Amino acid sequence: MKIYIISGLGADFKVLERLEFPENCELIFIDWLIPEKNEPFHSYVQRMAEKVDDSEPFCLLGYSFGGILVQEINKLKPAQKVVIMGSIKSDKEKSKFIRTGEITKIPRILPVGMFNDKAANVYSVVRKFFDPKNPKILQYFRVRDPYYLKWSVEKVSEWKFEETPEVIQILGDKDIVFPIKYSKPDYVIKGGTHLFPATKYKEVSQILKEVFI
């Protein structure tokens, strides 16, 4: 079984590199595309979905913002299974912090320059929000194109989606980005921050082996 995998906002696959899957699974990682100027979200999803071969059965796995993407792709190309980690099933599960961005439209008016490498101090502070106790936080976030980052933050805050009951959700109980109190996950990682796929990889691997067997 092929599993198409999308990592989190700004993240490459280092955050997922220690996860283990059943031997019969073929992993295919989908890299983030840089959005075109003022590209609508549905258009971006279609471009990402082009990398998925639906001529044979497949599964989808997404982490964080990647979890949102795989659910959108599933509408275009239905998968056998959809698993999301550190992500939400619908806009009803957004935190108050993210809802504030949606209501105020602040992400839309933030200057692109705020997301460039010269704003490294701001970038570092924002990333430590994901896991305050992890001193190596920035090693997981390597896709740093300023326009991509600004565009992605906008799309997360604006995202509207009706829950798909079949989607399998794994959340950490210490996640600040997507707090567990707003969701009813299928699996809970005890002590897991937003970076639980990297810090709690043994527990997550056991779940993935159960899900994809």
Automatic annotation (TrEMBL):
InterPro entries: AB_hydrolase_fold. This is Alpha/beta hydrolase.
